[in-house]
Design brief:
With about 600 residues, this protein is α/β, with parallel strands linked by helices. Among the domains are: about 270 residues, TIM Barrel (Alpha-Beta Barrel), CATH 3.20.20; about 45 residues, no CATH class; about 70 residues, OB fold (Dihydrolipoamide Acetyltransferase, E2P), CATH 2.40.50. It has 20 helices and 19 strands. The strands form four sheets. An eight-stranded parallel barrel has the order 1-2-3-4-5-6-7-8, surrounded by seven helices. It has a five-stranded antiparallel sheet with strand order 9-16-15-13-18.
Length: about 600
Amino acid sequence: MPRLELVETSLRYGQQALMLSRLRQRHAVRAAELLDACGFSALEVFGGATFEAQLRFLGEDPFERLRALAAAAPRTPLMATLSGQMLVAHRHLPDDVVEAFVRLAAQAGIGIFRLLDPLNDVANLAVAVRAARAAGAVVEGVVVCSDGPIPALAAVARGLAGLGCDAICLHDPLGAAGSARAAALVSAVGEASGLPVTVSFCAQTGQAVLAYEAAHRAGATRADVSVSPLGGGAAAPPAEAVIAGFSGTEDATGIEMEPVIRVAHFLDEIAPLYTDSVDPALFRFDGSALWGLLPASAMGHGLAELGERGALDRLPDVEAEISRVRRELGNPPLVTPLPEVIATQAVYNVFEGDRYATISQEIKDYCLGFFGTPPEPIDADVRELVNGREEPITCRPADLLEPGLPAAARDLAREGVRDDPEALVTYALFGSDFLASVRGEAVVERLADEEGGTSSGGADSEGARPADEEAGTPDTVNGDPAIEVRELRVEVDGQTYDVRVFGAGPAASRGEPLPAASGAPRTGAGTITAPMQGLILKVGVKPGDRVQIGDVVAVLEAMKMQNDIVAHRTGTVAAVHVREGDVVGPKAPIADIE
């Protein structure tokens, strides 16, 4: 049996999952120097949410940072993880942007591209695979495998091999795969693709190391790990645990522990600087995925919206609705951005009374095919309710996009800022954030040892007490151990929420709706209301208009998401209570339908 090679992921996956992508370049470069001496087969250092965070919050140039990491680790291949046609953004991008981004990343130091599509839609990976191969890089095609029938996942791997991938990566972002499923997946995918197989399993359910052992004995050649303290929990398994646990067995990695421990000591030394970016809940065991629920690490938007409504006790209702929405949408893999999109829609469905009375723009785009083809057909009734008479596209989503680089070049020339190739692709991905960064207008977060930084931890400037000094404890409510409490720090679009999630209360167990906000106007059976506080971007009807179920009445912007507020009954618009530009609160009346 070939030796199990280890891919070290703390500088991308680890710090993204456990540190809100806030690891500074100076610390990442020093860690890369130490990691380069450890004997890992690759270092994952680029991609995912870290790109946007470096630009938006840290005041760093992601490509410059990549070059610095390449210089610091000349012996170990560097890896990037990209979401196919979305790269590191939240939407599909034109082909010319994808090709340029991959080429520039390779020139800056990436030798291995790990490419995934959130829907396991192979067509959305073709351009990125072709660009990576043209750049002379190794390509790992990803199969997201938390659940789903193994024959269907093997077919995805076969398609990736047909694109020209050099290897297959089985990625389980929920950590739901146990030993038996891991072995079966490796065998099926290896046979279907004829390619080497890597396993990348989240550690949060406690199964990953056992699954790795079974996967290796079934033929997997590599596995993802993260050096502590950026391993375990919502990240990959700790490297030290895998190295020590497999030592002396046929699964031994051959990596010496001493240089790895030096990396861990360095990360421990800098950890106090990042107290404000670390949520202890993400380091703990979370068995949610084992019984079909989303773990806390994937519930960001949902928890934030429940917090805004003061309704965290309704979490069990939302979790049940997430499972239902996912089935209706064709059981998409639960990898970013889909957990956030599904969780947000589930919140709307729970609180609106009529399911899909409010529809996020992302759900509408998804049902129109703008994300790609889901693994299973979307429920026909839901598709009609969401899209009305609009027909879904039948082509690859990016086929509908005009080239992006010429427009970026014109915009940057007009703005009078740098327009080199890296600037063009960065602007094409994150236009306003890029402009703020190059003009020095971005609000850069500072650590305690940096000029303008503040100390982390302890009481804040107003003397707020730590959570464990408030009423109850982190595990009880008013001393009652029967009521479970989960303390979470959730970041949504750059805003951080500290929330405490209590076990289901009486209202949640009865399934009763949340009462309307105090002082809200009375509404009738035909009144369409706002699902949350937000800005009215568009009013699509006027008194006297005839509407059908699912017709868009208004568009509400909240938490940087556009949400269609749709008619929940067929009838005539009797009154419209809002205008474009109005800011409305939860349950505010939008229109009356008779």
